[in-house]
Amino acid sequence: MICVVDYGMGNLRSVSKALERLGAMVTVSSQPEDVKKAEKVVLPGVGAFGEGCAQLLKRGLFNPILDGLSQNKPFLGICLGMQLLFEESEESPGAEGLSFFKGGVQRFRTKGLKIPHMGWNELRMLSSMSPAFRSVANGSFFYFVHSYYVVPKDQSLILGTCEYEGEEFPAFIGQGSVWASQFHPEKSQEAGLKILRNFIDGNLSCH
After folding, report:
1. What residues act catalytically?
2. Residue 206 located in a structural domain
3. In this structure, is residue 61 part of a structural domain?
């Protein structure tokens, strides 16, 4: 059973439906017990970092998510769900993320850049052997909508990058059975569905 975490931050239906179409048993829940019991956890999200932190705390979801992460329970963070794995974000000064990974989240730096970065972009795989990318071609295109991106202190977490008008950013990270994407795999057609399929099928360890 895969639990898609509902903390009031968007795109739950598209994620859960994509997983179900691939044959997964899915529950969408805001209940801590469901997160604890789930075999795998997906943390999606659209919106501001600070509000995401606040909603996870309000619903008692911080500790169940962190417990699963520390136990190496298979986990997929999507968009805001990726950013919340880190300590802090320029978007919401003072807000504390899950802090599972060291590092923060920053806004695109290039002056005059159209924000948000929205639409299709090419993924450059740094680790094509990652099980996340099984049957996914290097250079595949994925769908993005974001103004901020993660900056891990441990650069080995970065498994794939993209470039937006000359500014390169981490688009996919992984460690053990914890994966996270800045793009939306559920909206990325065949390539995105392959990544979701790889998450469902298991054998997740990225390093």
Report:
1. 79, 184, 186
2. no
3. yes
Structure tokens at 21: 């179409």
* Residue 207 belongs to a domain: no
Q: List pLDDT tens digits, range 37-79.
A: 999 999 999 999 999 999 999 999 999 999 999 999 999 999 9
- Asked if the structure places residue 53 within a domain, the reply is yes
Tell me the torsion sign for CA atoms 151, 154, 157, 163.
positive
Among residues 6, 170, 2, 180, which one has the least CA distance to residue 80? Answer: 180
Its domain, for residue 17, covers: 2-201
Name the domain count of the chain.
Answer: 1
* Neighbour order of strands in the sheet with 124-125: 26-29, 2-5, 40-43, 75-78, 178-181, 167-175, 158-164, 124-125
Tell me whether the omega of the peptide bond preceding residue 170 falls within 30 degrees of 0, making it cis.
no
The token pair at 169 is 């950013």
- Listed residue (124, 92, 98) closest to 43, CA to CA: 98
Over residues 101-160, the pLDDT tens digits come to 999 999 999 988 999 999 999 999 998 778 999 999 999 999 999 999 999 999 999 999
* Structure-block tokens of residue 56: 């996870």
User: Can you give the CATH number for the domain in which 172 is found?
Assistant: 3.40.50.880
Tokens of 201: 């099928």
One-character DSSP codes across 166-188: TEEEEEEEEETTEEEESS-GGGS
Strand partners, 28: 4
